Structures
1.
Amino acid sequence: MKDNKLNLIMLGTGHGTAIKCYNTCFVLGKGEDYLLVDAGGGNQILGLLEEQDIALNQIHHMFITHAHSDHILGAVWIIRMVGQLILKNKYTDNLKIYANSDVVEKLQVLCNMVLMTKITDLFGKRIEIILLQDGDSYSILNRKVIFFDIKAKKLLQYGFEIPEEGIVFCGDEPLREEHYEKVKGCNYLFHEAFCLDSECEKFKPHEKQHSTVKDVCIMGEKLKVKNLILVHTEDSHIKKRKELYTKEGKKFFSGNLYVPDDGERILLK
């Protein structure tokens, strides 16, 4: 395990209607096995994986946080393409999809509406949908992954933690106080940061149940987070986003601050 640290590859970093970057989604893994976390809103997910030299046959786990279009629609394309590989005997093992009850219901409806029966017939066989309950844990990438209800305001949404390595991903709404203890002192916290605090009037993040860079960094400092990864942002400053968000964030956060671009890789030490 000590020599098998996870790679993080940010496939997308934007919010739901971003057009200058892809919707927030990423893979965790190394070598031949990856966990895909959300899949964005379209078939661009396939090209983004190809750009990173990640074959679909290397993805055997997919977690879908919630049923908004920018998180779930790309999953339909993953299922379609994996299904085709299975039918051609070119996909090893099974695809396991981890999701809460709202996602499971809507994903099955979507797939039944738009995919061929020979693909949907694979559900319950080679494509396993694992219905999550708050606190469920599974062994993924040889690690214990614990899924939890983030208590979102808009609709049912789950995040996850990997306690052994101190990794917490809390979805795309602000971290609730009831989850502070699981985040306190963690190595890596993935957190949405919709916009700069100076642009609150322009983007109105709080009305959308989102945070500013300042909000997240103050919270991260309070909880003594070691590494903070900001995702799910607006895209108007895409070329200077890293510079601007880092400048604002470092005023309030003393740990390592990451503002990744699409396609950026981070070794989780």
2.
Amino acid sequence: MAPFRPLPPLPGTAQSGTWRITNADMADADGRLAIFAIVVREQQSLKLLGTGFYLQPKGGFATAAHVAIEAQQHLATAQDSVGIAHTLPNGETRFLPIWKFFVHRTADVAFGIPRAEFVDDTTGQVIRTKVLSLTNVPPAIGEAVSTWAYPLHRCIEDDPAGRILQLQPDFYDGSLEEFYAERGPSVKLCTPYYRTNIHLHGGASGGPVFFEGHVFGVASSSYDGARNIAFVTPASALLEIRVPKRIAEADGEETTTLREFAMGGQIAIR
């Protein structure tokens, strides 16, 4: 297959080289190793639902609650129909089915678990994902912020294997404009949340929103047809999500919060 033709940038794309991503190892990271597209696989086609990012080396990840809820609707119809489109260190992109989601009761955030781990076909070794760190230090009003996400994409119809999805992630930047602690303008979100002037495109929901290289928020929503406005849910809400203490096994076990996982060093907090 011929290489993908680069797609023209979307409005609000950040200038190349102006932003960086710091992973939990405190090293600059390639976003494709820590941030991924969430897609629906239907027969021979793929549809973009949103963006997610890893919180745990074994694949536990964060996204927006509304992305998770739409994914759950597809999973209820067809098991393994929704998955992670993840880029491996060798540049190969793999589809890994998602097992289940744990959705926050009110905030637009969710925690997901893939059905398996990524394995190197040559060595048989498990590939540990790159993990982003959350920050407890939110930016001040007026500070520059950005998200790294997958809204820029296209379906290619004429591939011999069927329809394939070209994904072209990038930074989309702006500044923090307001914080709503108790009441806010969005009818879709419960407070607290932020307003930024990032141009948020469809498919960017669930992406990490960065301040000084670390994740302070999760991209949530905008107004239909609006330019340069994005509502962002504080990343700290992720720590309130309840999950089984042994999340890979069963729903019926005693539950805890992701905050406990963070306190135990299983989720990175700056």
3.
Amino acid sequence: MKVMNMVQSINNALDIKLKEDDSVIIYGEDVGVEGGVFRITEGLQKKYGADRVFDSPLAESGIIGTAVGMAVAGLRPVVEMQFSGFVYPGFNQIISHAARMRNRSRGKFTTPMVIRMPYGGGINALEHHSESMETLFGHIPGLKVVIPSTPHDAKGLLIAAIESNDTVIYMEPKRMYRAIKQEVPEEKFNIPLGKAQVISPGTDITVVAYGAMIREVQKAMVLAKEAGISVELIDLRSIYPIDRDTLATSVKKTGRILTVTEGPRSFGVASEITQIINEDAFLYLEAPPKRVTGFDTIVPLPKGEHHYMQSAEKIFYELEKTVKY
């Protein structure tokens, strides 16, 4: 196995699929010659040519709309939104066409396409560069929404996303692009979409997170261990479909749950997880489900961003309070 960061593992996944499947194409703003803002697609145009890896106009609606047409025609486009905050002009294409093409055509047409986008804060970026709005996509019938937290999962989930016959929103926590490295198999493998992973088994409380929040929870777990609290950490991996069984099984064991997300508090993924536990594991609860989230505000500009972001201390505070309830 080779040691990779997330940038390298995503690039490797794209390389594998381009090589084995001629229907896979990649395009977006600056992804061809430059390899994208974060150099995710670096070297792929040189290897596979400008017919399969190419730059697009600065028009998100056009990028997604053409991908819908290509997917219906038999290709498997993988398009990149330069930042998740730039995707909004393309929402009409996602909601009105990509997400409902199979239903509209009664199964005659599908849209096997992947929309990649770096998301989240923590890198002192400008407005529209730091949103964590995965809930918007998770609420749209017909979409799958995937968020990896490690280089290993980034590769396996992306390969599965490209091979899916549904439109997949693939959100990449950009603060994790080069934050960690780990061993990743060089050969092809995939991770099933919709299946969470129990990263660390525990007995006192279940903590659910995904993307960059996994690392923050792991920092909080160091404080929890010092306090004698055993944490079961679950990486959700897929926002939709969501793994109800893994969540309920864990809470039936621990009796408590804390969900950690980066995005705004109201109507978020944490709220959905709380309701799932109320429906599937209510009689096992020893404390009310709790959540640590962002605020119902626009993400602040760099000088104030740290007030918005989650930290090990914030997470541990709620974790300990829930255990002692």
